[in-house]
Request: fold
Amino acid sequence: MKKSILIIALFFGVTASLSAQTTHNISITDFQFTPPTLTIAMGDKVMWTNNSSSTTHTATSGSGCPSGNGIWDSGNITPGTSYTSPAFNTAGSFPYHCIYHCGSPYFMTGTITVTGSTGIFNSKSSASSLNIFPNPFTDLVTLSIEQGKNNVSMIKVTDAVGKEMKNIEVSAGQSSYSIDLSDLQPGMYFCNLYSSDGIMETRKIFRAR
Reply:
């Protein structure tokens, strides 16, 4: 009987987890994506809405301008309309652009970062790791970085919708950082580790009330 109850509980727990998808919103106005960087969970979707008065845009995956890489392509998003992506089922960093305005002078580009089911995204198989303590924190948080073959160059702290809250450049050879986050509101944030090749790891951090 207990085994049956456990199986039922696990089934509904998995079902709830699969159905708890979130659709995140990105606004297209004034030849820019807002927010330009967004961190989401695996299984979530993203909806781009064109709030421009008269200009058509696209949200096309890939870093090559103007060609895409085939992961998704909105086609034309005319003013007042929206496009919703398929669910992001793979952790990683996904750059995208507007094929009409990705070059000079607009450079309409953005990035979607997808974290895994544990809330941790490691885009590279490397010896680099990030330890954060205390977590949850109150004012100060300390980051301890072990560096292998990839060099950490920058740490960014973003809120739950990808808005950048802190940007810290990392000095060569430095492995420990104490960051004052007392100006943040209580809640969940993402600590993003970058190398010269792009994002390396993302960890959830929580500011206590």
